[in-house]
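## tool: complex_structure
## caller: assistant
## args:
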Amino acid sequence: MCGIVGYIGKHEAVPLLLSGLARLEYRGYDSAGIAVQNGCGLEIRKLAGRVDALRLVTQATPLHGCCGIAHTRWATHGAPTERNAHPHVDCTGRFALVHNGIIENADVLRVALQRAGHRFTTETDTETLAHLIEDAPGEVLEERVAAALAQVEGTYGLVAMSAAEPGKLVAARRGSPVLLGIGDDELFVASDASAVLEHTRSVVYLDDGDLAVLTPEGYTVRDAEAHVQLRTVNALAWDLEAIELGGHAHFMLKEICEQAETVKSTLRGRLLFDEGAARLSGLNLPPSACAEVRRICLLGCGTSWHAGLVGRHLLEELAGVPVHVEYASEYRYRPQPPDPGVVAIAISQSGETADTLEAMRAARRAGHRVLGIVNVVGSTIAREADGGVYLHAGPEIGVASTKAFTSQIVALALLGLYLGRHREGGLSLPRGQELVWALAGLPELVRRVLAQAAQVEALARELAAARNVLYLGRGVNFPVALEGALKLKEISYIHAEGYPAAEMKHGPIALIDADMPVVFVAPRDAVFPKVVSNMQEVKARGGRITAITTDGNGRSDLTGLVDHQLQVPATHPLLSPVLTVLPLQLLAYHIAVLRGCDVDRPRNLAKSVTVE
Ligand code: F6R
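## result:
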């Protein structure tokens, strides 16, 4: 949610910190701040607003020094004001820190600290940490930080510095990601690899409980028991272009347009044409163990939960295993009966979503085998899972998730294929091969759908003034209706709802009139004739219909019934969501642009929800 970056080296810290913050801004953008050790003490600039505004402030009143910390905030405790922006300091101004996460016992700590004479100047939970560090015993900053952290409950990813120890940063992690970027004669610390990618590809991911000390001479990492640990140095696989706009107006549009490539990348090296099967080397579920899987539980939030709903169809049909799809935020608080026959799969683009991570931990406590379908390599979910499938879709910067969704469906199809082919009575060779060929053909079909962008833009002009939109779909395309509605509401602020088409007559039909556009997701599949009946019910009530349907329906099928239609090529029925969602992503994008919305920074949202 919030973004953290720190630097220590030979160069001026401010430009490096600001460019790191700009890369992290998609994680939170209501306020920003920076602190630098200038040789005499700590100097701070912060404001309510964006990184660009902070840049202007640092130009007007420059700060100099080769060691500093910076933060871009998504408010949790305390309004997004200048006072509440990070970095936060103690009473003396000797200690400053930036923090992601939530200190759950902040209120209790604050009262105790105030009684002891500390003066608080902000409403944030983070400020308690600064005062705890001030009071903590210890000769050096790392001892003080460790002693302060021993008193807090909750989650943190933080970086602290002290005026008394120039040339030192202390970073710590529990529940909120922190990584070190190892450069030539310089070190970075950040909450997200995109902040350091410009400078180094070598990163060290901190584990929960780790505390790292960074100086110009190097870094050390101690674990929760204060033992020095040699953490692995990982090589980042992403290119710099992947986190740049590359000529597109917005990251969301860039990522929508990338999907022929990202789907291909999720498939790369994983299709076995002769065997009609999938190779999933990181799954850690040997063929012999597939027979023991009695139930699958898919866990996720938001768009990833929608992908799970598609996954249920894929896994039940291909592998013949019963599947439950759960909101991670609900699942984590329900007692789970112990059962080693259950495989719980956490689906997450970022691999850091707090609820999904906790749901995965709850599943582990219930004795389930725990897998992850994750995009970000090295993320917490990826590292804590017993195995899984990486999406390899490249960084997703747009706050509204797009390319992750299609790759998640593809990964779930690969998993269905893998399980189906390794379970007795599962998928036959011809059916397996049929799916393998259909998967292999998807990137080209994605490209063909995206080539219709101009048509979608024209449709967006028709719908941009709507106040409400209803999205309807059935079967494997019901989750696509949910996803289309989510995309529209989160970036254009139009109220939208997704519903199973046949459920419409049990309530939502009361809403239908000429002012309620209805978008049907209706490829030609087994339920197509039923969905056409639902269209007729809408038409009879004066509703305006847009249909996402399949080539070969022929316009005549729906002529007179629908007001607009967008056609996607036919594919394997289980894979149609990969295609039907594309016009809906583009539609939401163009409507948001037409309404003047900030597509990549929708209000109140931030990428990667690392708080509950
Ligand atoms: C919607 C969106 C969110 C995320 C959700 C889960 O466009 O981006 O609903 O899908 O916050 O995030 P991940 O997949 O990172 O766990």
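## assistant note: The chain has a mean pLDDT of 94. The CA atoms of residues 263 and 403 lie 8 Å apart. Handing back to user.
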